Amino acid sequence: MAYLEAILINVAIYAIATLGLAIFTGYTGLFSLGHAAFMAVGAYTASILTYFYKVPFFAALSLGVILSVLVSFLIGYPTLRARLRSDYFAIATLGFGEAVKVILENFDLTQGARGLPGIPKFSTLGNTYLLLVLAIILCRNFLKTTYGRKIIAIGQDPVAAEMIGIPLLPNQLLSLGISAGLAGLAGGLLAHYTTFIQPSIFSMDLSSLVTAGVVCGGMGSLTGPVTAVALFVIIPELFRGFALWRLVFYGMLLVIIINWRPKGLFGYEELNRKNLPKLFSIAGITGGLSLFMPTYRWVIESRGYEMFALFVAGAVVGAVTVLFGLLGKGLSLALAPVAERYHSLRDRLSEKLASSFGDIGTAPSYPTIEGADSNGLKENEAIREPILEVRELRKNFGGVVAVDGLSFKLSEVELLGLIGPNGSGKTTVFNLISSVYPVDGGTILFRGTDITPWGPTEVVVAGIARTFQNIRLFSSMTVLENVQAALHREGTYSLVEGFLQWPKTVPQVERRLRDESRRLLSIVGLEREADRRASTLPYGLQRKLEIARALALRPKLLLLDEPAAGMNPREATELVELIKRIHRDERLSIILIEHHMDVVMSLCRRILVLNFGRLIASGTPEQIQKDPLVLQAYLGEKAYAVVR
Amino acid sequence: MFIQTIITGLSIGSVYALMAVGYSLVFSVLNFSNFAHGAIITLGAYIAWALMVHYLQVPFFPALLLSMGGAGILAFLNERIAYSTLRRRRAPSLYLMISAMGVAISLQNLLYATIGAKLYALPPVFAMDVVHIGELTISKMDIFAFVFSALTIAVLHQILIRTKVGVAIRAAAHDMEMVSVLGVNLDVLVGVLFFIAGSLGGMAGVFMGVKYMVYPSMGWITNKAYIGAVIGGLGSLPGAIVGGLLLGLLEALVSVSSLGGTSLSTYRDVFSFGILVILLIFKPTGFFGRHVEDKL
To answer: In 3D, which of B173, B73, B110, B229 has the Cα closest to residue A255?
Structure first.
């Protein structure tokens, strides 16, 4: 029994650590090779406190968690701020892991490489599992909040996340902090279970185990990694003779999974009724394999034929696997009605809970587009200056001058076209306005304020939203979640409330965000696709979703970068109607880059033409179409001479 | 004493450079950090050990060449098995890195499980011989490692600028898609690339085995070669050389210095990683690296 308890406790401890890494790697998309170091910090802090200072267990654990989080900020702040690419960040964490080990080895309080023996055995089956369940609930709650969506958005596409106004550093640090805190908790529990720690325990091997758990369990999932790491702890116990081969096996599994099944066990979904059969089959194979050797030996002893014994043992493995698989299927079917009832019960309960707090109908007011409109109109009359003014804008890439002294003004509620041959610098102008690139010269004034030195998220907050030439959606999120992620500034509850899914505030705000997202989707005609995964949408609809996501930022100015690219004439006509509609209804100022001339000509009263980063013409569509410089730029000088 | 330290630094730095070149070559074309390179280097050293000590008594030079060939083939297989699927699917570089880590973990522990954790010595080729120049004592092996590393990198440089394959590799470093459109077989190109990187790694492994010992976790040292490659700028050949040498020198200097009475040599590795982090913060592209930007 003690043996079984040991395995179970180990499962819970490693599951907590893996849960942390699942948030950081699986959701935020950052790779850490030094997670064992956070476990070490938690383990040493808690052990020193309980061992030398007789601090109560849970207080010591908490202090270990806090210190792990602080240490993670210490390493995370400089490295994440520098925006290291993912492999540089990984090697930096590897170095950090090594540094922590060296420090522990040379530090008096930690008794160096000899380690700390005689730590009180406080971790029990009860408290480890209680903490595991608590950790899972808190993580799950967190991911369902606006804070969680920000982190997931960054994991899917950091550039797009920034372009919807999500600053990377604070959110990545938050994710790292949660992750390190859980690792520290796991470390503290581990120390108080094994009762002896030394620096070498917290090695690369431990980090690898946790990483393997996340990758094999599936990115973007909590229960997947927990299940996977549980199997990783249990399986080697079943094959005691192969202890040395354990890590060989993990490594191979990493290669196999990432190459041929990158989704892992439950990638981008959680353990649910539908994938129960899968889980049971895996458990069946594991259980079956563990019976292989005993059966084999038993048959050899009683009959003595090797071939026969192999056959019987193989049959047992097969039978157990099939049996478990069937059991899983049966259970999944049997649970179907229960699940349905549970879901409806849960919905009703949450509704009741929310309504018991009263003010469900009176959602606090937030800046709706309608509200902004009337303001915008008044301002339009009051302020005579243009909404956007670009003066002498300049950008070089190496020797190439992409934008060369461009100046233009955009009045309030104008729909301006920006055209030009390929490589004429149109998208670069957008990238400069939205602060993706720093400018090399000139100024950008938005509503009279110089926004040239601002960062991308500040520009978004000020009211400039954009779409991308190469679509950049959060592809593993649903259509609805893509828009919800962009509404992050309206998630007006605190992080603590989010973790607790505080019934007084969170459900209401979340419902409001959902309703608002649906409304924005209906503007672009995507309300029926709300629950589809964004990556499964056809191309034309993905472009519309990008527009809906941009609208969710409550922009004053919308930059549309080739919204009609890759659309057929019918879709392009629809798009023209859509742009006209949002321009009219939301009274937005819009700059439109487009190659479909029909689209530009039918939408814009004024068009700017760029060539080699310079403004070569501007005027009404009719003027542009006759302009000799424009014709030359598009047709080439010789062809133009012929045409003329 | 100071010059002695410099010489030690240069000799270890040259081996770092040899390993760093392997990282940089792969990075320049495939744009990911091949963390399995360390395992290939280790296996190169083990091949030399098997040839020179365990099974046969092959002399040093044939053993060196065979180890290089063997490590090259292993690196080639490594790519075929662990990266080619991801490469064709254009998976994010995080995936390639995870796969590389899987290979590294697997191979290193395969050595523990089969050959064991014991340290093995390679026969002292020159290690016992030293040259005295004035007050300096320089081991011949160090000189040999330095000269041979330098020669090999020079040959590689010539290959890259003069041969057809070399031109293709350099072109692929700029734009892999374009190169494949122009009719270069990417599978062959990447195969050659990994073979070259692997055989350089094999050579470095043998040098390290002679200088120190052969053991399963010797690949750990290659992490520092990686740091060298990053300092110089990943993906750049001169960067890898300069970075490797620089790191070797700095480490040698740190090892002999002390702070407030305590020797800093225990903190040497921490120091290397510290340099890495500081450099990455202030100059993430290293000295010679190029900046890659996403097209929006």
So the answer is: B110
